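question for whoever is on the cluster today: can someone run the full assembly for these? two chains, 456 residues total. i dont have access anymore since they changed the login thing
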Amino acid sequence: MKRVVLVLLLAGLAWAWHERQALADFPGILSAYSAKEYCSCRFVMGFAETYCRGYVQQYLPLSLLEEDGARRMVTAEGLGRRNQAAWQGVREGCRLLP
Amino acid sequence: MKALLLALSMTAAPAWAEDWPSAQWPVDNAVIDWQAVDTYAFAPRAAERGGIRTDALLIIRDGRILHERYTEPTRVDTPHLTWSVSKGVLATVMGVAYGEGRFKLDDPAARYYPALQRHPGLRLIDLLHWASGLAWQEDYEYAPLKSSVVAMLYTRGRADMAAYTAAMPAVSAPGTQFAYSSGDSNLLAASLRGMLDPARYADYPWQALFTPLGIKSAVWERDGAGTYVGSSYLYLDARDLARIGLLMQRDGRWREGRLLPAEWVAFNRTLFSAAQPVPGEANPGGHWWLNQPLPGQPAPWPDAPTDTFAALGHWGQALYVLPSRKLVIVRYADDRDASFSHNELLKRVLAAVAGEGA
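^ ran it for u. tokens below:
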């Protein structure tokens, strides 16, 4: 039994090592997606706040989704990561900030 | 006799008798029963974001609006996200550059985008066929961990999407295998940048395509390096996207002039010979999707004419062009599941048009 657990643990670690880049990136997806697509929903497509909150909603919850209407900037936080997107111009729309 | 004269006068009608949109689209007031189309496309929306959720449906026949309907909050003047319909429009912008003699299909992509120098055999035609041979996983929310497109748009690739794609290892020889990749489209966007004077790139989609077509609603977002996200981030209102459809329906002609070489549109509409059939999925042409069947296979959308071609995007976005029926159809949507069928929509539109006046 102990041996089975050990083998499974090693296999899990090997998989995690193999996928280390994807696993490291994963927590950032939720807040980046939400910040970018919410920014475009509001400031490019011109939809209302309530609609855009529903539009970007995923299975995993955000801890923060906030817009600064005057600067047309959006901040999203989830899975311990924070991302911001901002409107760049009439033709340029929104972009994630570095 | 009257009928014969009428037929003669129609065939002899000069080109200026064609309808084209100016600031507004002309309207066709034909009496057509759209109930079966609207029942399908605009079913009541469930609370859980399931089912067919059409935001806009616009049907143009021979340059005139035949039917148009929106779901709030999308309106006639909403620049709606087109997702991967952007790819077809990018190809159309490149068609103008092709007509200006800026590149040949067989040119190595590295000539215009030096980051591809590790892949000297990769040609622009391979990128247009989504056949770069570079490793890619095209999945969105269903497999975010492994998705190259999610990493490109939101994490590792967002600063420079073409550079992110160019750094992928080659898994097959260029031009030998179709593998749908948003990365390939962004390599095209970066190649286009390399063909132009740096100061002209930002304005080029407008100068080359949008302004001549009278498109005023376009927004095209860029990555951190300033390259257009040619794969995904073009926004247009439905009537403006239909202008691109009409240009394609009429083989690249626009009013009295020609915006795209006829051979470019013919390339867009030619099947990529190395494509493999996927049931129900349109076949790849030159950065557009075709209903033309692969050898020995049925047409992907059996109820639509085989000359139907389309630009298709995530969550149900679509621009269909049916040259033999002189139809252009724009559909914007927020489909969050796979219940929508291109064939079913086209079948119902064609049945409605066939029943005109009934």
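summary bc i know u wont read the tokens: Residues 27-96 of chain A form one domain. Strands of chain A lie at 64-68, 73-78, 81-89, 93-96.
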